[in-house]
Amino acid sequence: MRPDLRIEPVPFDHPDAVALRAAQRAELTARYGTPDSEPGPAPTAADTTVFLLARDAGGDAVGCGALRALGGGVGEVKRMYVVPARRRTGVAGVVLAALEAEAGRRGWTVLKLETGTEQPDAMAFYERHGYRRIPNFGHYAASELSVCYERALVPDAMNAAAIPLPWSRLGRPARRSPGAGPAAGHAHGPRKAGPALPAGGSAELA
């Protein structure tokens, strides 16, 4: 648990959520070289099940993540992002743990996600956290730059991780080591290889 972080659900159009998504989109553009094209529909307020913010001890929003229901007990992790100054400090792991716990509360049994070939940092992060690579699914099936993952959720583990609302502090169990996480979430973003970001500019953008 990180005592300096607080996880809270907010509306999709909350100003801090909008600002983090805009920063994420800018990084995707820098990483892939195109401003718009996505291999699948971008999440909206209508189809986002929950949007979580991570706040530091001063109340600043330092990360985010969202869930979108795919049906049949399956959900998709979306819009994972951590501000550059807080990368490699475990924030991404805390956000992912919170999303997994929320999925467990909803009775979901599988989480899927999509990232991109230009984001090896994101792929390594998800693999460290128990996600396995799968064939590209849904809207990403024909995307040559998409890389997809999934993880089966274990009900007992999810129940143990769950913290009732109102949200306060949530950390990943000690067996999960913090690391350089999705600095910017899954790459449902530009799908054209472009210039790499500067060293340390992790851009796991969703």
Protein architecture, described:
InterPro entries: Acyl_CoA_acyltransferase, Bact_Acetyltransf, GNAT_dom. One of its GO terms (molecular function) is acyltransferase activity, transferring groups other than amino-acyl groups. Keywords: Acyltransferase, Transferase. A hairpin with a 2-residue loop joins β3 (61-71) and β4. The chain has one domain (6-161): Gcn5-related N-acetyltransferase (GNAT) (Aminopeptidase, 3-Layer(aba) Sandwich). Helix content is 24%, strand content 23%. It has a 7-stranded mixed sheet with strand order 1-2-3-4-5-7-6, with helices on both faces. It is α+β, with helices and mostly antiparallel strands. The protein has helices spanning 15-32, 91-105, 120-128, 155-161, and strands at residues 6-9, 50-55, 61-71, 74-82, 110-116, 132-134, 146-152.
Output the keywords.
single chain; 206 residues; alpha+beta; Aminopeptidase; 7-stranded mixed sheet; globular
Summarize the structure.
This protein has 206 residues and is an alpha+beta fold. The chain has four helices and seven strands, in the order E-H-E-E-E-H-E-H-E-E-H.
